[in-house]
């Protein structure tokens, strides 16, 4: 059983731990059975003391944590506020980082180039529309539409003499011809 424990003590974790474990194993192997028993008893007592201290520290830590929570509550510091502050600090740290600043610069440059391209496209379209508006064919279309409007307006006015709008002229024409408009049934 002693060989099992000494083998367990000599299991390497890292090169430095391996050297230390080998030294401890060699020292332990050189002890008599009574000395080994005495060392194990000492180590067991020390382990019990250390575990008791750990438990005491855990209890004190839990008490201090509760006290801190009570103080935060009295000060109006909520979990939500702490989380918000942590997130804001994280965002601030991110913005101050070199990578973010470089990314921000690239995005800004890209946005400026995109705006320039869209500006060029918009000015090109505006220019083409202006050219179309001033072209002979557009003037011809405007003249034709204007003439057609004037003809309709003149005919409507000449028939009744008192009608001032096209819908009124239609209503008057329908009533004189005996036709009913779709809205007649709604008004009657």
From TrEMBL:
Record keywords: Coiled coil
Residue numbers spanned by region Disordered: 156-188
Transmembrane segments: none
One GO cellular component term noted in the UniProt record for this chain: cytoplasm
Biased composition (Polar residues): 156-165, 172-188
Coiled-coil regions listed: 33-60
InterPro entries per UniProt: TPD52
PANTHER family: TUMOR PROTEIN D52 (PTHR19307)
Family, similarity comment: Belongs to the TPD52 family.
Protein name, per record: Uncharacterized protein, isoform C
Organism expressing this protein natively: Drosophila mojavensis
Lineage of the species this protein comes from: Eukaryota, Metazoa, Ecdysozoa, Arthropoda, Hexapoda
């Amino acid at each position: 059983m002693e060989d099992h424990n000494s083998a367990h003590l000599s299991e390497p974790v890292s090169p430095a731990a391996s050297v230390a474990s080998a030294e401890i194993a060699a020292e332990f192997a050189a002890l008599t059975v009574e000395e080994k028993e005495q060392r194990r008893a000492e180590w067991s007592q020390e382990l019990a003391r250390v575990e008791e201290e750990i438990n005491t520290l855990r209890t004190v830590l839990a008490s201090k944590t509760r006290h801190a929570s009570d103080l935060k509550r009295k000060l109006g510091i909520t979990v939500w506020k702490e989380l918000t502050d942590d997130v804001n600090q994280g965002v601030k740290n991110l913005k101050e980082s070199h990578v973010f600043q470089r990314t921000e610069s690239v995005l800004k440059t890209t946005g400026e180039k995109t705006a320039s391209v869209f500006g060029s496209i918009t000015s090109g379209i505006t220019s083409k529309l202006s050219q179309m508006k001033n072209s002979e064919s557009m003037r011809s279309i405007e003249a034709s539409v204007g003439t057609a409007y004037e003809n309709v307006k003149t005919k409507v006015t000449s028939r009744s003499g008192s009608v001032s709008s096209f819908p009124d002229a239609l209503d008057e024409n329908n009533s004189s011809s005996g036709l009913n408009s779709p809205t007649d049934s709604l008004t009657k």
